[in-house]
């Protein structure tokens, strides 16, 4: 039976040694946007345990879970269990001088160097929970990653950055679009097959957006995202690395987020623009944006009504941390009460 592994990065930001190391490199921070380097970037909402339980409970077909860390291992995991593998950064980074890193996008530039993962794998963060049972076909169909290409209406240009978001995250998205436009065009994709731009699952609005892309804009400037567990193939990572090695290694150097960053979305943009995906838009995700204790309670009530396949947790609160975490963990424990096979 073909294996499909899950891969996710994780850091223990409470580790005193890690904190000292991070402070010792603070002079390398080039962009002081709060969204890039503030507390939220590293805060742990203690969701990892439930992310892992959700994989084992709702994706029983998975091969193993590969956790990428600086060397941290949660005390509640049996690291010798065959379903869990910890890989430290120094085991897969191309250049050791890029370490230590405090930048997830740097880590993602080195993913192609992971040796012991399946050809098809699912990449996710430690705030993405698989809420309901899903089959392999939700992630891969006809040997291809299930994905969608719906284009944006407004570019994330300088005016957008000035008025809405000037973080390096937005700049990284634009950096990747620029790289994609060097080698691909919407017309090339349309010639490969109408389904990639006009699949029935995109709906009228999605197809209208893509008509503008094809006939008016004629180049990419914004791919819509889903913040879900993302299916990839290793061969895609190899192709991307071969094509954009120089730019990717410049990003890999960045210990902290920087304006020349890229991210794992480069692999996604590449397989979209190349037409190396199975087109289908699944509206099955839920964004739990925790701004306060009250918003958490309302959000969880809405979550139970919606009952999606995937839940993404955003910890945007700046007060009531103890109450928020206690309520959230109680809720998740009720949803996933059974320990995973690799829990101590």
Describe the structure.
Helices cover 39% and strands 13% of the residues. By secondary structure, the chain is an alpha/beta fold. The strands form three sheets. It has a five-stranded mixed beta sheet with strand order 3-2-1-4-8. The protein has a three-stranded mixed beta sheet with strand order 5-11-10. The two termini are 28 Å apart. β6 and β7 form a beta hairpin. The protein has a domain at 5-129 and 233-258 and 285-335. The protein contains 13 helices and eleven strands. α6 (168-181) runs parallel beside α11 (265-274) and α12 runs parallel beside α13 (321-335). The protein is globular.
List the helices and strands and how they pair.
Blueprint: E1 5-9, H1 16-24, H2 34-37, H3 48-58, E2 65-69, E3 84-88, H4 104-108, E4 120-123, E5 128-130, E6 140-141, E7 144-147, H5 158-163, H6 168-181, H7 186-192, H8 195-198, H9 203-217, E8 230-233, H10 234-252, H11 265-274, E9 278-279, E10 285-290, H12 293-306, E11 310-315, H13 321-335
Parallel strand pairs: 1-2, 1-4, 2-3, 7-9, 10-11
Antiparallel strand pairs: 4-8, 5-11, 6-7
For the structure shown, list the relevant keywords.
globular; alpha/beta; 344 residues; three-stranded mixed beta sheet; five-stranded mixed beta sheet
In short:
By secondary structure, the protein is of the alpha/beta class.
Average residue pLDDT: 93
- Residue share in β-strands: 5-15%
Number of discrete helical segments = 13
Order of helices and strands: EHHHEEHEEEEHHHHHEHHEEHEH
Q: Runs with pLDDT <50, length 5+? A: none
In angstroms, what is the radius of gyration? 20 Å
Give me the secondary-structure category: alpha/beta
Q: Number of DSSP strands?
A: 11
User: Which strand order spans the largest sheet, edge to edge or round the barrel?
Assistant: 3-2-1-4-8
State the distance separating the first and last CA atoms.
28 Å
What form results from the Cα inertia axes? globular
């Amino acid at each position: 039976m073909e294996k499909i592994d899950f891969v996710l990065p994780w850091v223990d930001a409470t580790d005193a040694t890690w904190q000292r190391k991070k402070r010792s490199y603070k002079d390398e921070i080039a962009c002081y946007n709060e969204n890039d380097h503030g507390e939220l970037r590293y805060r742990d909402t203690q969701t990892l345990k439930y992310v892992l339980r959700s994989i084992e409970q709702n994706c029983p077909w998975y091969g193993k879970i590969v956790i990428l860390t600086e060397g941290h291992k949660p005390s509640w995991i049996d690291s010798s269990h065959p379903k869990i593998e910890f890989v430290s950064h120094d085991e897969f980074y191309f250049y050791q001088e890029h370490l230590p890193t405090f930048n997830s996008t740097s880590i993602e530039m080195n993913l192609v160097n992971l040796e012991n993962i399946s050809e098809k794998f699912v990449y996710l963060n430690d705030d993405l929970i698989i809420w309901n049972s899903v089959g392999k076909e939700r992630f891969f169909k006809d040997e291809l990653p299930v994905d969608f290409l719906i284009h944006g209406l407004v570019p994330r240009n300088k005016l957008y950055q000035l008025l809405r978001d000037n973080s390096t995250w937005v700049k990284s998205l634009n950096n990747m679009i620029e790289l994609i436009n060097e080698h691909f065009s919407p017309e090339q994709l349309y010639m490969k097959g109408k389904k990639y731009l006009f699949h029935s699952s995109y709906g009228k609005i999605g197809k209208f957006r893509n008509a503008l892309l094809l006939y008016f804009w004629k180049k990419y400037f914004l791919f819509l995202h889903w913040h879900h567990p993302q299916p990839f193939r290793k061969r895609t990572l190899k192709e991307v690395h071969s094509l954009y090695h120089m730019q990717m290694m410049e990003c890999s150097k960045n210990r902290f987020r920087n304006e020349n960053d890229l991210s794992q979305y480069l692999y996604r943009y590449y397989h979209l623009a190349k037409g190396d995906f199975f087109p289908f838009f699944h509206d099955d995700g839920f964004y739990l944006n925790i701004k306060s204790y009250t918003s958490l309670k309302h959000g969880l009530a809405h979550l139970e009504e919606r009952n999606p396949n995937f839940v993404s947790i955003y910890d945007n609160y700046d007060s009531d941390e103890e109450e928020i975490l206690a309520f959230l963990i109680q809720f998740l424990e009720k949803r996933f009460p059974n320990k995973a096979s690799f829990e101590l």
